[in-house]
C-alpha cells in the first residue's frame, strides 16, 4: 500500500522506535503501518537492532531475490553505512565529499528529487586514519542530519534538500574528523569525532535539533568536569572515586589520549540513556600511558538532554592492541540465567561478546566469539579481562608475536550486528585474523598520526578469513556460522521473514535463513561490501532490500590492485589477503533487490 | 627497522625539528631557529607548460643527494615525524600513497618531493615546513629517494602461465 503522508513524522518515528508495540489509537495504527516499512535511522530503531518487521521476503521465497535497480554514487572510497527510507524517498550519503542524494521511489528508475553537495574541505582526507568513509544519516523532525568528514554536522530539509543548519563540531587541525552516524534522542543530535590515531581529546556532543547549536560537550577521558560526570549521577559498576578519566593516565596524557567516537549510538527512551562506545587509547605504545586509561575502549551511558554521564564500563583497560570499542551497542530484552533483563549486547574488537545490564553497566556474561589469546576470560566479579602478560605490547617489548584477534577486530566496529526478537539471535560478521604487534615510541605532533605501529596480520586457525554467524547473547554461544574466504566486513540485517542479509569483501551479497544460515540467494555486486543492508516497503507495497557496494574503510582492504584509481600509487597486496584484488576493485554503487 | 631501534641518536634530529620536544606529550613552544636554507617562494611542478615554456623560478638542489648516511637519518626522521602513520612502515603505503614505488603524484625529483613535504599538498598531505627546517626536509627527501625501486611491473596476473 502507499504510505500515508498526512501523519506527523514524529508519530512515525515513535512507532519505528517501538516496533511491535500496541497502537493506542487509530491514527497511530496507520502511522505504525507506514513506519513498519521505513528505515529512518542508522540501525532502523533506537535499540540498534537492524531488525525489520517486514515479512514479504521469507526463507521460503528469498531464492528469487534479484537486483532491480543500481546507481553509481560517483565516489570510490569505502561505502560504509546504509541508506534511509522515509515516506517514498530514499536518502544516501556518500563518503567524502559527502554528497546527499534523495531518490524518488514513486517513479520508474527512481530519479533524484534533489542532490545536496556541501563544500567539504579536502584537508580532512589527510587526517582520516583509514579512509574517507561516512556511516550514514538520521531522519528526525523533517530533517536529514549527517556528519561531514571535515568536522561539521548538517541538517537538510528532507523535502527540499535545502540546508537548514550547519554546525562546526570538530577541528581538522587537531586531527579530528567525523565519520560516525548521528542519532537523535529527544531533541538532541548525538555526535562524536574520529581521531584515535591523532591523539585527540575524545568527546561526544549534544546538538539542538532545531538550531544545530552545541548544547553540551562531554569528553570521554580526562577530569570529571570535562566528562560531565557528577558524583550523584555517575555510578560506574566496577570503579569508584573521582576523576577516573584523569587519574588512570600519567600526568596529563589524557589530553592526547584518543577515545574517539566513530561508530554508532543507541537509545533507551525508558531509561532515557544514550549508549556509545569509545575507541582506542593514544598513542598505540601503551608504555607512554601507564594505567587503565579510562574511558577509552569503553561503553558510556549518558542522558541525552544535558550529557550527564550515568555509567561507564571499560572493555579493554590499558588498551595495548588498538581494540576500539566503537562497535554498536544493541539493546535487547533477554532472559539471562532465567531472569528477564534489559540487556546491552556488544561484539568488541577484542574478540569478546558482552551482554551487560543496560541500566547499570553490570556484566551479565562475556564470551569469546572468535579466537582470543590476549586474555583468557573476563572476570565477572571485577569486570576486568584476565590477560596473558606475554601478549602485552609496548615499545620495549619489540614485536610481540601471534596476538588474536588482530587490531581489525574480531569484528570491525564498522560492521554492526542485527538482532531478531523472533529468533532471539544476534547476527554478525567476524574476522578470523591474528597479528604480530611492533610498536615504537611516538611524539605528539598536532595534525599528524600518533601511532608508530607495524602489525602484520596472519590468518587465524582453520584457514578461512571471516564468517557470518548467529550468536545467542543470553548464553554466550555461537548457534551457526558461515565461513567466508575473506574477512567479513559488512553489517547485518534480519527481518521478520526470518531472513538475514550480509555482503562479502569479494563482492557477494547474500540472503540466508536466519535460523540455520543456509544461503538462499547470492549475487555478485560491483565491488566488495563494507556497508550495511537495509530493507523497506516501497510505495508499490513491495518489500525491497538495499545495500552499498564499494570496498574500503581500511587501508589494508585497498592494498594491491584493489586500489587502482591512482596510477602513482602501486603497492603489493598484504600477505594474508593476496588474492582480494582478483575479485574486486573500488567503486561505490547502491543496489536494490526484490523478489 | 624502526621497531627494533627503540633508541635513536637525538642530536641530529633536534637540529632538524622546529618546535617539537621529543620528551613531552605535546608540542612545545615553537623554537626560533631560522631555517638554514630558505625554500623558494613559488613551487613549480613538472606540469605541461602552456606555450611550451616552463615558468622561471628558483632551482632547488638537494645538498645531500645520494648521501647514504643522511638517508639513514631520514629513515629515523620518517618515523619521528609520524610520516609512517599515513605512508606506512618503510613508506610502502597505508592510507597515504606508497612513496617507494617510483611513481609520484606531484613529481619525484628531489626538489618536487621537497615542495610536497615543506608546503604540503591538497587532499591531505600536511605542510611540515613549520615543524621541520629545510635541512630536515632534505634529510627526508634523501631517505625517500634512497628507497630501492621495485621493478616496474604494471601487470598483475592470477593465471598460471
Description:
The complex is a heterodimer of chains A (595) and B (161). With 595 residues, chain A is mainly β. Chain A folds into two domains: 35 residues; 558 residues, Quinoprotein alcohol dehydrogenase-like superfamily (Methanol Dehydrogenase, Chain A, 8 Propeller), CATH 2.140.10.10. Helix content of chain A is 5%, strand content 34%. Chain A contains four helices and 39 strands. Chain A is globular and about 60 Å long. The N terminus of chain A is likely disordered. Chain B has a domain of 86 residues: Cytochrome Bc1 Complex, Chain D, domain 2, CATH 1.10.760. The N terminus of chain B is likely disordered. Chain B contains five helices and no strands. At the A-B interface, loops of A face helix 3 of B.
Helix/strand layout:
The complex is a heterodimer of chains A (595) and B (161).
Chain A: H1 9-17, H2 26-36, E1 51-52, E2 66-72, E3 84-86, E4 89-93, E5 100-104, E6 112-116, E7 138-140, E8 143-148, E9 152-157, E10 163-168, E11 183-185, E12 188-192, E13 203-208, E14 214-219, H3 224-227, H4 244-247, E15 265-268, E16 273-277, E17 298-302, E18 309-314, E19 330-336, E20 339-347, E21 352-357, E22 363-368, E23 375-378, E24 385-387, E25 399-403, E26 418-420, E27 425-431, E28 433-439, E29 453-454, E30 457-459, E31 466-472, E32 477-484, E33 493-495, E34 499-503, E35 508-513, E36 519-524, E37 534-537, E38 543-549, E39 589-594
Parallel strand pairs in A: 1-33
Antiparallel strand pairs in A: 2-39, 3-4, 4-5, 5-6, 7-8, 8-9, 9-10, 11-12, 12-13, 13-14, 15-16, 16-17, 17-18, 19-20, 20-21, 21-22, 23-24, 25-28, 26-27, 27-31, 28-29, 28-30, 31-32, 33-34, 34-35, 35-36, 37-38, 38-39
Helix pairs in contact in A: 1-2
Chain B: H1 10-16, H2 68-80, H3 83-87, H4 110-119, H5 134-146
Helix pairs in contact in B: 2-5, 4-5
Amino acid at each position: 500500500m502507499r504510505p500515508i503522508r498526512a501523519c506527523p513524522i514524529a508519530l512515525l518515528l515513535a512507532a519505528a522506535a517501538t516496533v511491535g508495540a500496541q497502537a493506542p489509537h487509530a491514527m497511530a495504527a496507520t502511522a505504525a503501518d507506514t513506519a513498519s516499512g521505513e528505515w529512518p535511522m542508522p540501525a532502523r530503531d533506537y535499540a540498534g537492532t537492524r531488525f525489520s518487521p517486514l515479512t514479504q521476503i521469507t526463507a521460503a521465497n528469498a531464492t528469487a531475490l534479484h537486483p532491480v535497480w543500481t546507481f553509481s554514487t560517483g565516489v570510490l572510497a569505502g561505502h560504509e553505512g546504509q541508506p534511509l527510507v522515509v515516506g517514498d524517498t530514499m536518502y544516501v550519503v556518500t563518503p567524502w565529499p559527502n554528497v546527499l542524494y534523495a531518490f524518488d521511489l514513486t517513479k520508474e528508475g527512481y530519479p533524484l528529487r534533489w542532490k545536496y553537495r556541501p563544500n567539504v574541505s579536502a584537508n580532512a582526507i589527510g587526517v582520516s586514519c583509514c579512509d574517507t568513509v561516512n556511516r550514514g544519516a538520521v531522519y528526525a523532525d523533517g530533517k536529514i542530519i549527517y556528519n561531514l568528514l571535515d568536522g561539521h554536522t548538517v541538517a537538510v530539509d528532507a523535502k527540499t534538500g535545502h540546508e537548514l543548519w550547519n554546525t562546526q563540531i570538530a577541528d581538522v587541525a587537531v586531527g579530528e574528523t567525523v565519520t560516525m552516524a548521528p542519532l537523535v534522542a529527544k531533541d538532541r543530535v548525538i555526535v562524536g569525532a574520529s581521531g584515535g590515531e591523532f591523539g585527540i581529546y575524545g568527546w561526544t556532543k549534544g546538538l539542538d535539533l532545531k538550531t544545530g547549536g552545541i548544547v553540551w560537550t562531554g569528553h570521554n577521558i580526562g577530569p570529571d568536569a570535562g566528562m560531565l560526570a557528577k558524583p550523584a549521577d555517575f555510578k560506574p559498576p566496577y570503579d569508584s572515586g573521582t576523576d577516573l578519566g584523569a587519574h588512570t593516565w600519567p600526568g596529563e596524557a589524557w589530553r592526547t589520549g584518543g577515545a574517539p567516537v566513530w561508530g554508532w549510538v543507541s537509545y533507551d527512551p525508558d531509561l532515557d540513556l544514550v549508549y556509545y562506545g569509545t575507541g582506542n587509547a593514544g598513542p598505540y605504545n601503551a608504555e607512554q600511558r601507564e594505567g587503565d586509561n579510562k574511558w577509552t575502549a569503553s561503553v558510556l551511558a549518558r542522558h541525552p538532554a544535558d550529557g550527564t554521564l550515568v555509567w561507564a564500563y571499560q572493555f579493554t583497560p590499558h588498551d595495548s592492541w588498538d581494540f576500539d570499542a566503537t562497535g554498536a551497542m544493541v539493546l535487547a530484552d533477554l532472559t539471562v540465567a532465567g531472569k528477564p533483563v534489559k540487556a546491552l549486547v556488544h561484539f568488541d574488537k577484542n574478540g569478546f561478546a558482552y551482554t551487560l545490564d543496560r541500566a547499570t553497566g553490570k556484566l551479565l556474561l562475556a564470551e569469546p566469539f572468535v579466537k582470543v589469546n590476549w586474555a583468557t576470560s573476563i572476570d565477572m566479579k571485577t569486570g576486568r579481562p584476565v590477560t596473558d602478560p606475554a601478549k602485552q605490547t609496548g615499545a620495549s617489548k619489540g614485536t610481540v608475536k601471534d596476538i588474536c584477534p588482530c587490531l581489525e577486530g574480531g569484528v570491525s566496529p564498522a560492521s554492526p550486528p542485527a538482532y531478531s526478537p523472533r529468533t532471539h539471535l544476534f547476527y554478525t560478521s567476524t574476522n578470523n585474523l591474528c597479528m604480530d604487534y611492533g610498536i615504537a615510541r611516538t611524539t605528539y605532533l598536532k595534525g599528524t598520526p600518533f601511532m608508530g605501529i607495524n602489525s602484520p596480520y596472519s590468518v587465524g586457525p582453520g584457514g578461512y578469513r571471516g564468517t557470518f554467524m548467529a550468536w545467542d547473547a543470553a548464553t554466550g554461544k555461537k548457534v551457526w556460522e558461515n565461513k567466508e574466504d575473506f574477512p567479513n566486513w559488512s553489517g547485518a540485517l534480519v527481518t521478520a521473514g526470518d531472513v538475514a542479509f550480509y555482503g562479502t569483501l569479494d563482492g557477494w551479497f547474500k540472503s540466508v535463513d536466519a535460523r540455520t544460515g543456509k544461503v538462499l540467494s547470492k549475487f555478485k555486486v560491483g565491488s566488495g561490501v563494507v556497508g550495511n543492508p537495509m530493507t523497506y516497503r516501497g510505495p508499490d507495497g513491495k518489500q525491497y532490500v538495499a545495500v552499498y557496494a564499494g570496498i574500503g574503510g581500511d587501508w589494508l582492504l585497498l592494498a594491491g590492485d584493489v586500489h587502482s584509481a591512482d596510477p602513482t600509487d602501486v603497492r603489493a597486496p598484504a600477505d594474508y589477503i593476496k588474492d582480494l584484488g582478483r575479485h574486486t576493485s573500488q567503486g561505490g554503487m547502491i543496489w536494490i533487490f526484490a523478489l | 627497522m624502526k621497531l627494533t631501534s627503540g633508541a635513536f641518536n637525538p642530536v641530529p634530529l633536534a637540529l632538524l625539528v622546529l618546535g617539537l620536544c621529543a620528551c613531552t606529550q605535546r608540542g612545545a613552544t615553537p623554537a626560533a631557529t631560522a631555517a638554514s636554507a630558505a625554500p623558494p617562494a613559488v613551487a613549480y611542478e613538472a606540469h605541461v607548460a602552456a606555450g611550451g615554456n616552463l615558468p622561471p623560478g628558483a632551482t632547488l638542489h638537494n645538498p645531500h643527494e645520494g648521501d647514504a648516511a643522511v638517508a639513514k637519518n631520514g629513515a629515523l626522521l620518517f618515523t619521528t615525524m609520524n610520516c609512517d602513520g599515513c605512508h606506512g612502515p618503510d613508506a610502502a603505503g597505508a592510507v597515504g600513497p606508497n612513496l617507494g614505488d617510483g611513481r609520484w603524484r606531484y613529481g619525484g625529483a628531489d626538489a618536487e618531493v621537497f615542495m610536497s613535504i615543506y608546503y604540503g599538498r591538497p587532499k591531505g598531505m600536511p605542510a611540515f615546513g613549520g615543524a621541520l627546517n629545510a635541512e630536515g626536509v632534505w634529510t627526508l627527501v634523501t631517505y625517500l629517494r634512497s628507497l630501492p625501486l621495485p621493478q616496474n611491473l604494471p601487470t598483475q596476473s592470477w593465471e598460471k602461465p
